[in-house]
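We store sequence with structure; for instance:
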Amino acid sequence: MKDAFALTAIGHIRTPFHEKFGIPRQSGLVDVAGVVEMLPGYDKPVLFDGLEAFSHLWLTFVFHQSVSQGWRERVRPPRLGGNQRKGVFATRSPFRPNHLGLSVVRLEQIQVKEGRVRLHVRGADLLDGTPVVDIKPYLPYVDALPDAAGGFAPHPPSTQLQVVFSDEAEGQLQHIPSGETLKTLIKQLVALDPRPAYRKEGDEDRVYGMRLAGCNVRWQVSGNCATVVSIEANDESQ
């Protein structure tokens, strides 16, 4: 007989990422701001007493958009170019039996407004609206093990692309609030080259896009250079 456990969301995280494509494949790779909005019953300041002394947090969350797709015994890690299979428990794939994820984020601020707590964090790699099911402090003496083996991902991914902006994109940024901050974020994300590995050859004419911070961002790649061709505000309610 299988054990059954019920998980309850204690909050949701707000991030600039409105779709899976373009999200960094690990936390901390890009200095992305996020806010964990605690739900009623879990938003009392007393629950966070002492947390301000820690610089980083573990967020346990649910890959909620993958639940309906089930899980897989073997998956194709992007780090291996998407053309090699590994057992699901040897990866951080979202297609897991319980669809749980784990990310380390930097704690910037514990905000208490009208008696409710919001956690301001950085380094997030979560989709906007992702349910958070647990929060724990990061303990450097046990959570950071410099001699640990990293398997097929022993080092952080290197920057893959040089990123430039077209005149049109530069002009559009001028009309977007916090345009310079958005430009920096776009540059960091596109430099990591989020394209699927099997599409990286001969796709100079292909236009890639992602929904980010309320905008539709589009770019093209030629060689090791990515050109951001447009940045258009969208309607996030759709």
Notes: The CA atoms of residues 12 and 214 lie 18 Å apart.
